[in-house]
Amino acid sequence: MSDNLKNKTAKGLVWGLFNQGAMQVLNLVFGIVLARLLTPADYGIVGVLAVFTMIAQELQTAGFTQALINQKEPQHKDYNSVFWFNITMSAFMYLVLFLSAPLIADFFHEPKLLWVSRFVFLAFFISSFGIVANAYMTKHLMMKEMAVIGIISLLCSGTVGIVLAFLNFSYWALAWQQITYITVYNIGRYIVVPIRPSLSFSMEPIKKMYKFAFNMMLTNIVNSLSMKILTFIFGRMLPMDQVGNYTQADKWNITASDTIRCAVNNVAQPVLAEVRDDKERTLRVLRKMMRFASFVSFPAMFGLALVSEEFILCTIGEKWHASASLLGLLAVGGSLMPHYALMKNIVISHHRSMLYMWLCVVQIIFQIAIAIGFARFGMYYVVLAFVVYTVLYFFVWHFFTKPITGYSLFALMKDIMPFALISLATMTAAYFATSFITNNWLLLLSRMVVAAVIYVGILKLLKAEVLNEALSFVQHKQC
């Protein structure tokens, strides 16, 4: 990797981690306050709408965002055409969802969904005005600017949500929080991004990117389904308070795993696209990112699984106790999300959108089959089966990306397994070392501190290169 690309990648990863870390801390604070003010049923009502919003967002962007990022040097006409295409698609999709609201309410047996869904769906229409700006910022690795905008947006939206929850607006507080966030975020992106839309529109860039973008759209829709399929199924089968418990566990799992996944993902696609013509260089970049993801993700997510019960009880209270065991399971599966992101970005950066699509389609088919097959055993066992499947399917992604990168299974295991095993040993030791503590707050803090000390200590004893690189980078303030 050249020094310039290496430095850009390192800065992107560090700023990406700072962005996600700061936002997740704020999410933690706002999430705790809101969970104490609202009920599981409130979260269930808004949670079941997530799958519709995510699918609509993918239809409105139609994969063109990733197509722009994947281009070597996109021009203004490319950005402009995609901008107006997104606006048009989002207006159409909002109309469809607005008219579908009665059917959605009937499907989930919840009349309250009629108007709250119509309001929540406005979020993806508003977001369409900033999609091109987001592609530009990602393409140019503007992670610092994204961090600042994201933090400001979260502060504004979190404050709105808490105020409305305190005023007894129940689930409407969560709906307004979503709308406020995307509105402020779009304003911030418009301020920092230099490109401006013009009224001239050409179909030429759309046609040029169409094949890649269409396959990515289908794939991203399947991805959205795979992420929210359990919420959708539980929403149909179970009362909203039980759906809320799962939604709460899933939210904390995503909050933690996305800190690493998004930091890696935002850097991976533009960097891998830049080196895709050099197979040897691509492999070096991929392995380095895979080790970095393992170094951070395994201890973070295994640690969350370790303290899941204490975390839930100490932060959002006894009324959410049923979500603790679900969070412990989801966190184990969440440890591989940054690794999935890297495999997916390899496929995207090499223009293998059809392969990407079919791998995701097969994944969602098996997920639906698992949900149906294990439903009679209860929510816990459905989630357990999902986690096991998530771990196993990662190796399917590796199998199909190996011809592209030359990344052997042995090399993959060499890069990720040491961190996984050290993290597992660390959490086991921390569990037994603190098992005599009965106070939940003291237990939570003790396990976090003990686990961190053991993990860093083991890596120092083994002279892990990735730890030394991370410490060296911070000490020299290269970001």
Sheet/helix structural class: mainly alpha
The count of helical stretches stands at 21
Strand tally: 0
Q: What fraction of residues sit in β-strands?
A: under 5%
Element order: H for helix, E for strand? HHHHHHHHHHHHHHHHHHHHH
Low-confidence stretches: 473-479
Measured distance between first and last alpha carbons: 18 Å
Coarse shape: globular
Verbal overview:
With 479 residues, the protein is mainly alpha-helical. It is 84% helix and 0% strand. The protein is built from 21 helices and no strands. Helix 5 runs antiparallel to helix 6 and helix 9 runs antiparallel to helix 10. The longest helix is centred in the middle third of the chain and has 36 residues, at 240-275. The radius of gyration is 22 Å and the shape is globular.
Q: Could you provide a short overview of the structure?
A:
With 479 residues, the protein is an all-alpha fold. It has 21 helices and no strands. 84% of the residues lie in helices and 0% in strands.
Per-chain topology:
Elements: H1 3-37, H2 40-47, H3 50-61, H4 64-70, H5 76-107, H6 113-120, H7 122-127, H8 131-139, H9 143-166, H10 171-192, H11 204-237, H12 240-275, H13 279-306, H14 308-315, H15 322-334, H16 337-349, H17 353-374, H18 379-405, H19 409-434, H20 440-461, H21 465-476
